[in-house]
Specification:
With 114 residues, this protein is mostly helical. Helix content is 78%, strand content 0%. The chain has 6 helices and no strands. Helix 5 crosses helix 6. The radius of gyration is 18 Å and the shape is elongated. It starts with a helix and ends with a helix. The mean pLDDT is 85.
Length: 114
């Protein structure tokens, strides 16, 4: 198995996990696939089914509406999508910042305590 094959398998696995998470958020929001599809502007629920199975991606232009329908912040949904579908990009964009934020918070707490 090549590195490219491994990456493709990992992306498919992550896409399926993302789909399950999106389905859980949809159910929590009290929406059926058909209802969500209508809110976003899709003709039928097959697009939602594809997204939730991991075989399709949410079109970038639809992310804000999708997030609003699921009652999550657009930035949170975008980070989740990147984390699952483009983990290297997610890591490059967010992991370093999160580590630096945690360090700064720990330093501030130490100064306040000391």
């Amino acid at each position: 198995m090549t590195d490219n094959d491994r990456e493709n398998r990992r992306t498919l696995s992550n896409s399926a996990a993302l789909g399950r998470h999106l389905r859980d958020l949809r159910v929590k929001a009290g929406l059926t696939q058909s209802m969500l599809a209508r809110h976003i502007g899709y003709k039928n629920a097959s697009m939602i089914g594809g997204i939730e199975s991991g075989s399709r991606a949410i079109p970038v232009a639809d992310i804000p509406t999708y997030a609003q329908c699921l009652s999550v912040r657009c930035g949170e949904l975008t980070k989740l999508i990147l984390q699952c579908r483009k983990p290297d990009l997610y890591h490059a964009l967010f992991t370093v910042d999160e580590v630096n934020d945690a360090r700064a918070q720990a330093q501030a707490q130490a100064q306040a305590a000391g």
